[in-house]
Design a protein that fits this description.
It comes from Hirundo rustica rustica. Belongs to the sulfatase family. Its EC number is 3.1.6.4. It catalyses: Hydrolysis of the 6-sulfate groups of the N-acetyl-D-galactosamine 6-sulfate units of chondroitin sulfate and of the D-galactose 6-sulfate units of keratan sulfate. With about 500 residues, this protein is an alpha/beta fold. It has two domains: about 325 residues, 3-Layer(aba) Sandwich (Alkaline Phosphatase, subunit A), CATH 3.40.720.10; about 90 residues, Arylsulfatase, C-terminal domain (2-Layer Sandwich), CATH 3.30.1120.10. The chain is built from eleven helices and 19 strands. The strands form four sheets. Strands 1, 2, 3, 4, 5, 6, 9, 10, 11, 12 and 13 form an eleven-stranded mixed beta sheet that branches. Helix 3 crosses helix 6 and helix 5 packs parallel to helix 6. The structure holds 2-acetamido-2-deoxy-beta-D-glucopyranose (NAG) (2 copies). The site of one 2-acetamido-2-deoxy-beta-D-glucopyranose has 6 residues, from loops. The site of one 2-acetamido-2-deoxy-beta-D-glucopyranose has 5 residues, from strand 8.
Length: about 500
C-alpha cells in the first residue's frame, strides 16, 4: 500500500490548511486479486476465442465486460513449470519471492484452491510461501495408484491432509464423474464471502484441474457438451466462473476485485480429442514451443476500471500477473533481482501497447523468440521418433516439413522466421534471402543478447532427468508418500 499511503501526504502538501480532512479520509480499499488458472486449457477452447460450439457463455460474457488478450503466453509449455512425479524432492526455493509473500506484507489474506505443484516436501508447503489458506493438492489428480509403493495423491486443507484422490475424493474414470470442480467452486465462494465480511483485501489463486487428463465433470454437466467429456469439463468451469463473478457482484465488490483468467500451457493434444482441448489455429500443443504449446486464452475483468469489450494485442505473459498484481496492491516489484514480467495496468486501463519480446523455453533451452508479429525459432522439435512410434504425438495431424521435427534441429545461425499475423499456424517460413528476414532477425538477435546478459540460471528443482532432485528411496521406503509434506498425518 505504499503509494496509496503516500497519496494523502502529497495532497496535504498542495492543499495546506485543508489537510486535516483529506488525512482523515480512509484510503481507498485495496483491490482484491483473483487469478483463475486453468490446467491444459487451450487458446481455442472458449467461444470468445472462436470455439465452434460456443459453449462458454459466462467466459464470453466476462470477455465482453472486460478485455480479451489474444497474444498472451505462458512461461513454459508444461505446468509447474515441470511435471512433478511423487519421487521428486525439489521444489520452490525459499530465495524465490512469491506474490502471496509480498501481498501478505500489504495486508492481504491469501488462499490457494487447487493445484500447488511446487514441491511436496515440508519446506515447500504453500503456507510456508505466503499463503494463509489452502484447499487442494500438491499434484495433479493422476491415479488411481492404490498401492503402498505409490499411494494416491493427497488432498490438503491448510496443513492437514484431509484425504486422497480416488479414495476420499472420488474420480470415476469410467464415467468421468467427479465433484471436484464443485468443491473448488464452493471453497472460492466461501472464501470470498468471508473476506468481504472481514473487510480485508484478498488474493485468491484458483488453480483447478478438471481439464487436465483424466478430465472430469460433475453429473449435471456430463454429456452436455458437443465436444464430449472434455467439453463437459469446460462447461462446468465456465458455469463456475460465472457463479464466482456473480458472487462478487452480489456482494458489491466487483469494482474492487481484479479478475484474470488464463491457462498454464497449451491444450494437451496428446490426449485429444477425448481428453484434451483445442489450440485453435495454432501449431501443436502442450510440451512444444510452437504457438499451440504456449499461447493461452486470457481475459481481464475489473468492472468500472477496465473498459468493457476491449481486445488487446499486447504481448503478455503469465509472469506479468506478478508485476500487475503488485501494482494493484500499490507495491513495487523487488529490486534485488531481474523481474521478467511487466505491469499490464497501462494496457488494461489506458489501452497502451508496450513493446516487449516473448521468450519460448523448453527445459533450459531458449527455443524461440517473438518480437512484434515475428517469431524466430532457434530450435525446432516436436517429439522424438521413439515417442512418435509409441503414439506419443504433440502435433497430431499437423506435420509441417522442417518445422515439427522429430529430432532437435538447431537453427541458431539461421533462425526459422514466421510472421504470426499472416501465418498464425507457423506453416510458411519467411525466405532467408528477403530483406524482411534480415531486418526481423537483426532485431531478434539484439533482444536475445540483452536477455542473455541479465539471465541468472536457477538451480534445477523439478527436472526428472536430474538425479539430484529425485528420491532414490523408492524401493526401500515404500511409505515415503503416505503423506506429502512429512508426517503431519
Ligand atoms: C457427487 O455428489 C453427489 C451428490 O452428493 C453424489 O451423489 C455423487 O456420488 C458424487 N459423485 C462422486 C463421483 O463423488
Ligand atoms: C540420488 O542419487 C544420486 C546418484 O547417486 C545422487 O547424486 C543424488 O544426490 C541422490 N538424490 C538424493 C535426493 O538423495
Amino acid at each position: 500500500m505504499a503509494s496509496a499511503a503516500l497519496r494523502p501526504l502529497r495532497l496535504c502538501w498542495a492543499l495546506g490548511p485543508l489537510c486535516l480532512c483529506c488525512a482523515l479520509r480512509p484510503a481507498a480499499a485495496a483491490t482484491n486479486i483473483l487469478l483463475l488458472l486453468m490446467d491444459d486449457m487451450g487458446w481455442g477452447d472458449l467461444g470468445a476465442f472462436g470455439e465452434p460450439s460456443k459453449e462458454t457463455p459466462n467466459l464470453d460474457q466476462m470477455a465482453a465486460e472486460g478485455m480479451l488478450f489474444l497474444d498472451f503466453y505462458t512461461a513454459s509449455p508444461l505446468c509447474s513449470p515441470s511435471y512433478t512425479p511423487q519421487d521428486i524432492v525439489g521444489g520452490i526455493p525459499d530465495s524465490e519471492l512469491l506474490l502471496p509473500e509480498l501481498l501478505k506484507k500489504a495486508g492481504y489474506t491469501n488462499k490457494i484452491i487447487g493445484k500447488w505443484h511446487l514441491g511436496h516436501r515440508p519446506q515447500f508447503h504453500p503456507l510456508k510461501h505466503g499463503f494463509h489458506e489452502w484447499f487442494g493438492s500438491p499434484n495433479c489428480h493422476f491415479g488411481p495408484y492404490d498401492n503402498r509403493e505409490r499411494p494416491n495423491i493427497p488432498v490438503y486443507r491448510d496443513w492437514e491432509m484431509v484425504g486422497r484422490y480416488y479414495e476420499d475424493f472420488k474420480i470415476d474414470l469410467k464415467t468421468g464423474e467427479a465433484n471436484l470442480t464443485q468443491l473448488y467452486l464452493q471453497e472460492a465462494l466461501d472464501f470470498i464471502s468471508k473476506q468481504q465480511a472481514s473487510q480485508k483485501p484478498f488474493f485468491l489463486y484458483w488453480a483447478i484441474d478438471a481439464t487436465h487428463a483424466p478430465v472430469y465433470a460433475s453429473k449435471q454437466f456430463l454429456g452436455t457438451s458437443q465436444r464430449g467429456l472434455y467439453g463437459d469439463a469446460v462447461r462446468e468451469i465456465d458455469d463456475s466462473v460465472g457463479k464466482i463473478l456473480k458472487h462478487l457482484q452480489q456482494l458489491g465488490i466487483s469494482e474492487n476485485t481484479f479478475v484474470f483468467f488464463t491457462s498454464d500451457n497449451g491444450a494437451a493434444l496428446i490426449s485429444a480429442p477425448k481428453q484434451g482441448g483445442s489450440n485453435g489455429p495454432f501449431l501443436c500443443g502442450k510440451q512444444t514451443t510452437f504457438e499451440g504449446g504456449m499461447r493461452e486464452p486470457a481475459i481481464a475483468w475489473w468492472p468500472g476500471h477496465i473498459p468493457a469489450g476491449g481486445v488487446s494485442h499486447q504481448l503478455g505473459s503469465v509472469m506479468d500477473l506478478f508485476s500487475t498484481s503488485l501494482s494493484l496492491a500499490g507495491l513495487q516489484p523487488p529490486s534485488d533481482r531481474q523481474i521478467d514480467g511487466i505491469d499490464l495496468l497501462p494496457v488494461m486501463l489506458q489501452g497502451k501497447l508496450i513493446d516487449r519480446p516473448i521468450f519460448y523455453y523448453r527445459g533450459n533451452e531458449l527455443m524461440a523468440v517473438r518480437a512484434g508479429l515475428y517469431k524466430a525459432h532457434f530450435w525446432t522439435w516436436s517429439n522424438s521418433w521413439e515417442e512418435q512410434s509409441k503414439g506419443i504425438d504433440f502435433c497430431p495431424g499437423q506435420s509441417v516439413a522442417g518445422v515439427t521435427t522429430h529430432t532437435q534441429e538447431e537453427h541458431t545461425c539461421l533462425p526459422l522466421l514466421f510472421h504470426l499475423g499472416r501465418d498464425p499456424g507457423e506453416k510458411y517460413p519467411i525466405s532467408f534471402a528477403s530483406e524482411e528476414y534480415q531486418r526481423a532477425v537483426e532485431r531478434v538477435s539484439a533482444l536475445v543478447q540483452q536477455h542473455k546478459a541479465t539471465l541468472v540460471p536457477g538451480q534445477p528443482q523439478l527436472n526428472v532427468c536430474d538425479q539430484a532432485v529425485m528420491d532414490n528411496s523408492t524401493v526401500t521406503t515404500p511409505n515415503r508418500q503416505i503423506a506429502a509434506f512429512g508426517d503431519q498425518k
